[in-house]
C-alpha cells in the first residue's frame, strides 16, 4: 500500500529526514516511536505532503510522487486524498456541529450531495461511539470526543491510509482509552494505519510492526515483541529503557 524510497527532508540547513526507505502492506498498522526531534511528525507530514520532501519517492495505493523531479499541484492534491490525517490538536471547526464537521469534506471537496454526506457522517459518528452527539458543537464535547470526531472526519473522505500524529498526547489520561479503542476498531476493520504515538501499550497490542526512528533514519523495525523485548540496536534499547 505504501512504498517510500530514499525520503529526505530538510528545513534550510537542518536535515531532518536523512533517507528513509519503507514498505507497508495493505491493512497493516505501523507504529512509529522515537525520541523527540527524531523526525516522526515530519515523516508523517511528508506522507501526505503537508511538508514537501526535499527528495525521494512516495507511492501510496499505486499513485506516486517523485520529489527528485518537479511535482505538480494537481498531482499533490490527488495524492493527498489518499491519506487521512489525525492531529494532536483536534482542529475541528468550532462553529460547526460534530455532524457538520464530518460532512464538510465530502460536500466541499468531493461534491457529495448533502443528504448522502449526512447519512455517511451519521454512520461514522455512530461508529466512533458518538451517535448521540451529532448535533453538539466542539465546545460541548470532551477532548476524547472531539478527537473521535476528528477520526470520523478523516474517515469521511474514504482515505486508503490513516495517519495519526500523537492523537492522544493532548488528552487527559482518562480520555486516552476511548480514542485508542476507536483506533483499534479501525485497525480491526483492516485500515492501513501509520501511528506516531507514545502509547506503548497500544503499540504492543495493535501494531503489526514498530519502527524506531532516531536522527531522521529508521534505526530498527520489527514486530512489537522483537522491538520491545529483544531490540537489536543499542539506540533502541537506550530509548526504551528511558521510557519504560
Ligand atoms: P518528532 O516528531 O520526532 O518530535 P519532528 O519531525 O517534529 O520530530 O521534528 C524534527 C526536527 O525538525 C526538529 O528539530 C524540529 O525542530 C524540526 N522541524 C520540524 N518542523 C519544522 C519546520 N516547519 N521548520 C523548521 N524546522 C522544523
Task: Describe it.
The chain starts with a strand and ends with a helix. It is built from nine helices and ten strands. The chain has helices at 40-47, 73-80, 98-108, 114-127, 143-155, 173-188, 200-206, 224-229, 234-243, and strands spanning 2-11, 14-24, 29-33, 55-60, 63-66, 83-86, 161-165, 192-196, 209-214, 217-222. Helices cover 38% and strands 25% of the residues. The strands form two sheets. It has a six-stranded mixed beta sheet with strand order 6-7-8-3-9-10, with helices on both faces. The protein has 244 residues and is of the alpha/beta class. The radius of gyration is 18 Å and the shape is globular. The model has no long low-confidence stretch (mean pLDDT 96). It binds adenosine-5'-diphosphate. Adenosine-5'-diphosphate binds at residues 11, 14, 16, 34, 36-42. Its main location: membrane. Residues 2-240 form the ABC transporter domain.
